[in-house]
Specification:
Blueprint: H1 5-30, H2 45-56, E1 76-80, H3 94-97, H4 109-118, H5 139-145, E2 151-153, H6 161-164, H7 176-187, E3 191-193, E4 210-214, E5 223-226, E6 240-244, E7 257-261, E8 265-270, H8 274-281
Parallel strand pairs: 1-8, 2-3
Antiparallel strand pairs: 1-6, 4-5, 7-8
Length: 292
Amino acid sequence: MLRNPTRHAFRALRLLFVIGLTLLAAALWAAPRNVILMVGDGMGSDIVAAAGAYQYGARYHTFGGDQRLVLETLTGRYYTTTHSTNGAGYDFTWEDGSPEYPKKNATDSAAAATALATGVKTYNGAINMDDQRRPLVAITALARQSGLKIGVVASVRFYDATPACFAAHNVNRGNATAITHEMLMVTQPDVLMGAGDPDSAPADHDTGYLNQVQPTAAGQLPTVAWGTDGGWGGHTNRLVPLYCQGKGSEAFANYAFRVRDFEHGLVSVVDNTAVFQVMKRALPVESLVVAN
């Protein structure tokens, strides 16, 4: 019996088409639909404890209760380093327990956000520039290459250091007008929300850090003591908590290591540059990504 070669070729092509659609559907199903990074600028464990004391009073788990903030219920929890290239890394012993250690060569928001956005550590004040003042590629640019929409939303001025690192480049975070121009006229995120006058350069915040947080009652501010007077700029080299959940977030385990920290004890730690790496792995079209 003679076989029709055209019919068999058509069947083979149809089978390959079905297999291709199946693989594509599986890839799309496995990929995260959205990648959302929320940065509590300057938010360390002490701020989380203060928020819990305000929300739940003595029922908050830090004070012996059983209540947790929503972010503390996420499936993944790590601590991240924050140091910039201005410092000498992070000493998990705090120089044998020196309370002055966190002040030394601390990062600022610009360097820390650049590490989050590009996976590269840099000098304090840099907006997506490396130590040689060369521009870096941010995760938002890679996401746009992959066909995704991008957005930057801030509760402060949108051109301030942390949001700016996801949509601009500049050698100095104080160059507010140039940063604003690049965000609005060049990068043009699909969503850009914030507030502020581009003719006034953003000032750094002097917040220090809290200790001796004690609850009063739910809905009332806790009593606190300042770990510093804030006069040195408010930033520290302390580890900060990272909470994560959803498809792709399990990749943080590939970058984590266990270590005993002076402040937190035995914890799982990732470098803040790992945030970029995990987000990059979640992009749907890996072939379009050009890493720093």
